[in-house]
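Fold this complex.
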Amino acid sequence: MFKLFQLAPRLGTLASRCESYPIKFLRPFSVSPANRLKEIREVNDGKNITIEGVYVDLPKADKVLKVVAENPNSCSICSLGLEVKHTDVLILSQFVRPDGCMLPRRITGLCRKQQKRIGTMVTMAQRAGLMSNLNPTYSKKDPEKRGQWKKFKSYYDESTIGQRKPPKPEYKWIWKKRNFYEKV
Amino acid sequence: MTALQRVQQWASFARVWHLFDARWQNPFDSGVLIAKHLKGLQKPLYSEQSLCGDHVVVINCRHIALPGNEWRKRVFFHHQTYPGTATWTPAWEMHTRDPTMVMKKAVYTSMHGNLLRRHNMMRLHLYADEEVDPEVAARVTNVIRQLRPIPERLDLMEKEKVDSFPQIADLNKDYVIPELKEYPNWESQHQKMKRQGKKSKSSAK
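Structure:
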């Protein structure tokens, strides 16, 4: 018997918005959002299966960085005013699920530009082998166990994010002892 | 010659042995720096023909880092002078065969192709890991500073450091933490048949 149906009605919002729970016919209530994250836990007693929604505290709720930004509507990364690099794993890992996937934009709360940028940098960090504990269950977890070129170390240039091709430099014919094209 | 003059003479003309740790460094950028020390360009009494260069011991050559997809794109050309013997080896293949080769070629190509190059290269000592010959290690007196900072791996970080870092991500509270799917150990078709003791079609023929 599913315990979810017996719980308070405000959990209707929970069940209707949850991603992994299949039941969709619960009516969404317009209730102010609760102040904590939600987790669905399944307990199998052998006779009964109880699926219940549990409130879970935010990770590091006491260490949330409060930044006084110029623009109060800016996202959490824009308000920092820092150049985040692909080696800043402690920042990037906060926007990543435990199996290595990026969280969607409606959850991270980042602006479109930063969401794409952070997403690309997470890919860079994963390819460099810097976040091997945030990997799916079937992964080898050790970057040196990968095959061929993937086991060797690599680093990335953040200035190439968003670029499709490198910009073409402007060349001009300059008369010198040895005639050649020189970059102006 | 006084004692002071003797000391001055030794200090200015003695050959110095430098150490360079190539872990997480780009070999081509650091090759330029190493070549400078091999030629002796850092000395005020530098002269090309006097071969006043120093020795450089490079350790951790196995752990060099290349940017982006350069492990696949960077190729090393070799020709045996017989027709059809031109080979283009990608950097990762070269590195698996000999871990010091990429670093050696990086230093070699950063120098001018004159007759002094081979002489200067003889003063370069490359080691794949941190194990160095004791005779070489006893002579090392200086360390060359690395060019690139070494990144930290999240799985190897201390727990205190990870926990004390501030929470920058302002996650939306209406988020349900998804259940992580546990996939069984993935094995390829070949591995599966090997485990079952079956022979593949190609080997049967």
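Chain A touches chain B through 62 residues (CB under 8 Å).
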